[in-house]
Design goal:
Layout lengths: L2 H9 L4 H9 L4 H16 L2 E4 L1 E6 L25 H13 L4 E6 L7 H14 L4 E5 L5 H10 L3 E3 L7 H7 L6 H14 L2 E8 L6 H14 L3 E6 L16 H14 L9 H6 L3 H7 L4 E2 L6 H4 L15 H14 L3 E3 L10
Parallel strand pairs: 1-8, 1-9, 2-3, 3-4, 4-5, 5-6, 6-7
The structure holds 5'-deoxyadenosine and FE2/S2 (inorganic) cluster.
FE2/S2 (inorganic) cluster binds next to helix 14.
Length: 345
Amino acid sequence: MNSIIYNLESNNNLNDNDLTCLLETDIYDDELHKVADKVRKENYGNFVYIRGLIEFTNYCKNDCYYCGIRRSNDKSDRYRLNKDEILKCCKTGYELGIRTFVLQGGEDSYYNDNLICDIVSDIHKLYRDCAITLSIGEKSYESYKSYFDAGAKRFLLRHETANEEHYARLHPEIMSLENRKRCLFDLKKIGYQVGSGFMVGSPYQTTQNIIEDLRFLQELEPDMIGIGPYINHKDTPFAGKKNGTLELTLRLVSVLRLMFPYALIPATTALGTISLNGRELGLKSGANVVMPNLSPVETRKKYDLYENKICTGEEAAECLGCLERRVESAGYRIVTDIGDVKKHA
Ligand code: 5AD
Ligand code: FES
């Protein structure tokens, strides 16, 4: 076996030179994906966990240059789901066998802490056997703590890039990597299962930046790591920039599986958007989570972080059915339990 792959498999660590070789050429790809799949099977068998995604608001106070729902995009058709609409999504999901709900939205102050806690505690009361995940951006320690006490035990917040200069090229000056990191460590301190991650092939990203992302993740030790290719959106300042590639994203899924054998790694919607069978390939490269969309069909198109997002015309049941078929065709099996992360080594 190639010595780079051997190193990665045997000690979970690679130096920066090895990582550069792995990421910048395709010569290791087959072996890399194979070894990553072996490691995922040692840890998780052929199980794939499902997380039902509820995109409850596309209002956002932030103005990230890459994102279609950024504040300055006045072409965005804005919507908000009320508590009853959110609960209806949960009900549909529950009946389909989903036991984790991910409430994701832009940073929308309409949903103040009281409202978030109210929604979370109602879901928690109605679905005692379910996990509630929030993905609602940067908040204070106290706010995060209040959601946790209301019953949310998981939080997704991608760091997006761990390099200061790169961060500044993707975000307006008012946002900072420092605060992003503060949020992630606060979430851990409170006791959340934390998910982080980054976009692959975002504008100005270098291989060195990606290596910094991996090093930051080693420091953070998240339970979940979500990555997906950057995909252009025409109504953003990055209109016309190149998309991230399927190949590099898959390579990184495998590298993540090897560096973080226990992590929950989703085959993301963005991966399924740049390539028809992107999610299947993601699973075969080491991913072990899929996230069917539970949002009302009427609002799905409006939550357009990037163009041509898949699953915008499907009912939740079709979405899950489609994902189930895809998972099975790749040789894996969906499990409907709550799907906690396995203990870290
Ligand atoms: N392409 C791909 N991913 C994007 N995200 C936001 N905008 C884009 C885009 N144009 C990702 C970010 C964010 C997650 C919810 O979606 O990484 O954290
Ligand atoms: Fe949504 Fe395929 S996963 S339609």
